[in-house]
Amino acid sequence: MFENLKNSTIYFGREPQNARMLVAMKIGGNIQKGVMGEMGSVPQSVSRCIPDQQKYHCRLHIDNDGSMTLSTGNNYTYVGGFEIESKRITPNSSIALGIDKYPLDVKKLLELA
Q1: What is this structure's pTM?
Q2: What residues pair up with 34 in beta bridges, in sequence order?
Q3: CA angle, 37 as apex, 23 and 34 as ends, to 5°?
Q4: Contact 24, 12 (CB under 8 A)
């Protein structure tokens, strides 16, 4: 389904300036960025994503076989309603970020990446 994303890592979190969801990944040695959502739509409880400083709320690693692992640092991240540090997910997984449980659409995230 997302063949071009195999063996890659996607970083995401709140965009510092406009509070949208910032999605970033390294392609050919350069960091490429995209945003999802309306300005001001991502709450403060979602950590900022500043890829140049290696800051992000979560990262999603996609293995060579297409399996996906969602990892978080000291941030609140939920899969299926349960708080996680690291968990295998699918494009249909229910993910929420931060204390406010901001919902994240994995399919849209993958499409943007």
Answers
A1: 0.90
A2: 23
A3: 30
A4: yes
- Interacting residues of 3 by C-beta distance below 8 A, sequence separation 6+: 66
Please state, in angstroms and as integers, the Cα–Cα distance from residue 74 to each residue in 6, 45, 55, following that order. 26, 12, 11
**Paired sense of beta strands 58-62 and 102-104, if any:** unpaired
DSSP letter for each residue of 40-87:
T-S-TTSPB-BGGGTB-SEEEEE-TTS-EEEEESSS-EEETTEE-SEE
Give tens-digit pLDDT for 64-93. 999 999 999 789 999 999 999 999 999 999
